Amino acid sequence: MEEINVNNEKVIIRKANKSDAKSLIEYLNIIGGESDFLTFRTGEFGRSIEQEEEFITNTLSTKNALFIIAEVDGKIVGNLNFSGGSRQRNAHVGEFGVSILKEYWGKGIGEELIKYLINWSKDSGIIRKINLRVRNDNTRGINLYNKLGFLEEGIIKRDFLINDKFYDSLIMGLLID
């Protein structure tokens, strides 16, 4: 667990636990309607509370996976989920997704979640590379990832389809050595 101060508010960053499942689903349904940069929109997350509990439990028991949340006064305001490969040959590499409630955008919480992931990866003794996929028009996200040392590695054409318009994604990676 880590505690940071953001605009005189105490933000707690901690690993998710099974009892967070209901609040996480509510959070994900809110953020799905706040940004077109996510892979889902409101109502598309598609997990029941029981399925989310199982997902959290499985993540907690996997050495190359991480699921963290950011809380303000007990309210989930952000999350980050990282999953490493499932086989020996790719267990050292994984991809993450991060999201923040719109009212907390621009306050540094996403950056703190990613820094937590980077430090966890360095300490894990397992993770040697972190990947991410970001829409290529998400300049704020790309600037943040660049600031944290991620390098651009490639483009996925037509990765998103939103309102009958295609968007490309940028693949970025950070070596952990």
UniProtKB/TrEMBL annotation:
Protein's UniProt name: Protein N-acetyltransferase, RimJ/RimL family
PROSITE patterns (alphabetical): GNAT
InterPro entries: Acyl_CoA_acyltransferase, GNAT_dom
Domain of life according to the entry: Bacteria
The keyword Transferase appears for this protein: yes
Keywords: Transferase
Pfam families, A to Z: Acetyltransf_1 (PF00583)
Residue ranges occupied by any N-acetyltransferase domain in the UniProt entry: 11-177
Organism from which the protein derives: Anaerovirgula multivorans
Annotated GO MF terms: acyltransferase activity, transferring groups other than amino-acyl groups
